[in-house]
Write a structure and sequence with these properties.
α3 (56-84) crosses α4 (89-97), α3 runs parallel beside α7 and α8 packs antiparallel against α9 (175-192). The longest helix is centred in the middle third of the chain and has 29 residues, at 56-84. The chain has one domain (3-192): Tetracycline Repressor, domain 2 (Orthogonal Bundle), CATH 1.10.357. The model is unreliable at 194-199 (pLDDT under 50). With 199 residues, it is mostly helical. The chain starts with a helix and ends in a 7-residue tail after the last helix. The protein is built from nine helices and no strands.
């Protein structure tokens, strides 16, 4: 086997591990991520783990980064689609983040909302990856807000979205949880994105 093919196979395995770990960490929290389970979910043997990561903490930090990148790309696609229709980027962001879908599928959504209460108790590398995720979320909000909105608004909106999603998930994927999301969605859109109600 040539080194190029080996390199491609190794990269493919690495991506599968990250995909599995990103889902697991958002579903089960940091403590609920086991190396053996992640490797099994990725379709790989446990013994191959150390060819990709020096430790479980290194996996967690990369999984957090991977989860955040995937979530940001999903939201960015929604924003771009809204802009093509002449819609507001802020509306697209708020409606996607505070959606019934995001309530129901934490394993595919924002890592900050799924894990923020656990982040301060992690090792330095994982905490730094967590801080990067928070900064990225705030930057995404800042970019989506109407021109001239100050930085404090981006911090407020990001905090409101994360907190609302966490509280809605606590209430459950039910009428109460959905009502909490709708109330926050409408409040944010009235304050920062126009007076019309969320779609």
């Amino acid at each position: 086997m040539t080194s190029g093919i080996r390199s491609i196979k190794k990269q493919d395995s690495y991506e599968r591990i990250l995909d599995a770990a990103a889902r697991a960490v958002r579903s089960n929290g940091f403590a609920g991520v086991g190396v053996a389970d992640v490797m099994r979910e990725a379709g790989l043997t446990h013994g191959g783990f150390y060819a990709h990561f020096k430790s479980r903490d290194a996996l967690l930090a990369k999984a957090l980064e991977h989860a955040g990148r995937g979530s940001a790309e999903s939201i960015s696609r929604r924003i771009d689609a809204q802009k093509e229709k002449g819609g507001s980027p802020f509306r697209a962001l708020v409606e996607r983040y505070l959606s019934d879908w995001h309530l129901a599928f934490p394993e595919a959504g924002c890592a900050v909302a799924a894990l923020s209460s656990e982040m301060p108790r992690q090792c330095d590398d994982v905490r730094e990856a967590a801080r990067d995720r928070v900064r990225s979320l705030v930057a995404m909000v800042r970019d989506a807000l109407p021109p001239g909105t100050d930085d404090a608004a981006a911090l407020t909106v990001a905090s409101t979205m994360v907190g609302a999603l966490q509280l809605a998930r606590t209430l459950g994927n039910n009428a109460q949880g959905k009502a909490l999301l709708a109330a926050n969605r409408n409040a944010l859109l009235r304050q920062y994105g126009g007076t019309d109600a969320a779609l």
